[in-house]
Amino acid sequence: MPTCPCLALLPLTLAATIALPSCGPKPAGAPNAPQATSPLADLPPLPGTHPDQRQWFWRDVLAAPLPDQETRLDLAWQQLDDPAAIIDALLSIPEDGSVAAGPSLMPALRHPQDAVACVAAAELGRRGIVEAIPRLLKGIGPYPVDFDIPVAVRAAEATALARLGHPAGVPFLLTVLAEKTAEQLPDADLPWMRTERVAWFQELALDGILALAGQDFGDHPTAPIATRTAAVRAMQAWWDEHRVELWAATTPLLDDDDLALRTRLLVANLGAYQLRQIDGARFTLHHLGPGVLPFLEEGLGSDDHYIRLHALEIMERLTSFADDALRAQLVAVARAPLMNDASTAVAAQAASLAAAAGGVAPHRCLRRDAEVARCVAGVRGPRA
Length: 384
Known about the structure:
Elements: H1 58-61, H2 83-91, H3 101-105, H4 114-126, H5 133-137, H6 151-163, H7 170-177, H8 199-213, H9 225-248, H10 257-268, H11 275-288, H12 293-299, H13 305-318, H14 324-340, H15 344-356, H16 370-380
Helix pairs in contact: 2-4, 4-6, 6-7, 6-8, 7-8, 10-12, 11-13, 12-13, 13-15, 14-15, 15-16
């Protein structure tokens, strides 16, 4: 039996092989047709949009109320002009479940007054509103599409994520805290215009580190440079040591029904009209963490090959913080599209995922599709 040329392009990095059947004809029928029971088959429209609307922002969609929340909003703050009064109104939104606090608070993240947006972020974190995680993620990327958000607001959103037990904002928080130390980034690498007025958003950032690490490592915005430099280095060492386990701990967050629905809406719109919408969805889904994998698997059942392709590409991004168990899951998920997907681009992306997750190419041919070999070569690079 011949060896499939595309598999020679995958790195043989482990001793074991992916348990895949040997070469043969593709199964008849349409393997990628969505199942009638698929959670993606009967989703509501994107919140805050009308059916034929092509131009929209994820920041608005992810903050808008879900269908069962539309009659339970408290948006009295939107009728006020004075920032102090708006803040008071946000803080007075009931916490007893009588209103949908998440979509009542999230629109304030785009308020032109930084103080108002920061209070909204802090309230989302303090109240444990996990459905806000996708919207809060939009405060840290993707670069540079949504980086018109002020640094202080981004720090507040990253800190709110930390208070929710989510580490996606830690690299940003460390970048903020490194300012005015020996560890600060060069001007060209800093994702905002450097300013000397950093004390406020460093205080916000330090709260985020404290929430996740349980300590501030001796840092304080007014401490001597040597002290702050040592503290930032200690934070980075803590992050390097605990990063994978912190990401793994986020999986239960996606058990929340409202967060699950917002996640499915992101997956279902990976084939959106505008590239920035696709990039925004990919960034957000990646940074939701390992718990997003079952939702991405649902995307593999779509009849839209762009959704299948992007779902696999996001899975490959998950390897950036994957433990051994997640890597094994990713290799297993790659098998079916690698063998059976009608799209050669999707099959090639599945091969790329298997390689990135540490899987070893099987010794038997899976497909005779020369186009897959060319796609894999383009994704993984030519043989050495």
